[in-house]
Structure formats: C-alpha cells, structure tokens
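Running this now, will post back.
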Amino acid sequence: MRYSLIIPAWNESAFIADTLRQVSAAMHRVEQSHSHRGEIIVVDNNSSDNTASIAQALGATVVFEAVNQISRARNCGASVASGEVLIFLDADTTCSDVLLARVLDNMATGRVVGGGSEIAPDKPVQAVAMRGIRMWNWIARTGKLAAGCFIYCRRDAFDAVGGFSNKVYAGEEIFMSRALKRWGKRHNLRFDINTVDPVSTSVRKLEWYSSMQLARQALLILVPGAVFSKRLCKTWYDTDEQRDKLQ
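Update: finished.
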C-alpha cells in the first residue's frame, strides 16, 4: 500500500531528528519485507526553533501551518499527502517496523477503517504513572479509541468525516476515533487498536508537571466545553522550550 506518515511538530527540535531517523529505518524495513511504500510529511506548526530545517535535512517533506493547533497541523499534513492510508504520529513518538507492517497489512485487507495502538513510555516511570498508562491502554482497547500520538485511517474515510475537528484544542483523536467508527460501521469496516509492539512515546511532561497537576488537567477536559478553549488545554501546548518557565 501507499501510505503517508504525518508528523505535526511545534518546537520539537529536541525530538524530531531521532524520531525521523527511527521511523525512516522502520519504513525502509517494511518496504523491503512487505512492499508497502510511504512518505514522511512534517508539519511545522509555526515553530520558533529549527524543527523545520532539521526535518528537511533528514529528507522529510515539510509544510507550514501558521495556526498553532494540533488539529489544524494534522489536517494540513493530510492536505498534501498522497497515500491511501494516513498515519498520524507525534514528533516525540516512535513506532516499530513490526507495528507499521501489521497496520498496513490489516489496512490492505480492505476490512479496516483505521485504528491506533497501545502506548508505552520511552523510559522508566514511577508506578503511579505506569498505572495511568495501563489504564489508558485498557480504555483504548475496550472503547476502541486511538491515542493522539498514533492514529491511522483510510484516506477516503478521513475525507468523508471531514478530518480532525478544528474546533477543539485537545482530544481531537477521540472525536476522530468516534467519527471513523461510525463511518466504518456503515461500510462494514472495523476500527483496530493494535497491541503488538506498542508505540513508544515521550513522558517528558511527567518531568514538568506533578501527578496531581496532570490528573487535574485530565479531569478538566471532561468539563463540557473545555476542549474548545486553548487556555484550558494548556498542557497540550507546552514544549521543551518552555520547560524553564514551568519549573
């Protein structure tokens, strides 16, 4: 299959090089062993650092989205993508060739609308944080909800549901998961959450915020209307550049 790997990135110079090298190697192995061919698109979401130049130097197609919003960045990448399958990967997240091949093989059957993956921390975390990750993975499996760091779908399904909602500043992957499941149900297609080789995602925000602060933010977005406010969703828009201000 032809697929597009789309990476939204805002001030991600600390992670983007390692992410691109890792996923490029995984994509090469998948092409060699399964014949799936892909492209990498990095969306520079109005970065003030050298994220874009790093991505260009490493061979990614780089496009620019001026409005600093995760949904808009994802949609911007999709607008220039040529793949039959769209895979959205966060700039601080990596996926193995095993997971990538499994996703693309399943999509090639024509019986899957899209899906996500369980997640794993990129380094050891405290027990309370690990319980939170395990809880999310259980919610993802049972509720068929993709984590924002790794969500994929058919291109025609993405277009049919209108892409990610530009009205929200967090939780756009939940809205998208639900929309894709509804569309898939009408077309007899399933939504998968993969449990083989979970994606590895950064736990840097556990170093920036206390467990109580993160729990409070997670509960806050359950308040009706909260996801429509960038101010209330502030932890989704903090990057390494801001760490000194937060500590």
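The CA atoms of residues 18 and 65 lie 22 Å apart. More later if anyone needs it.
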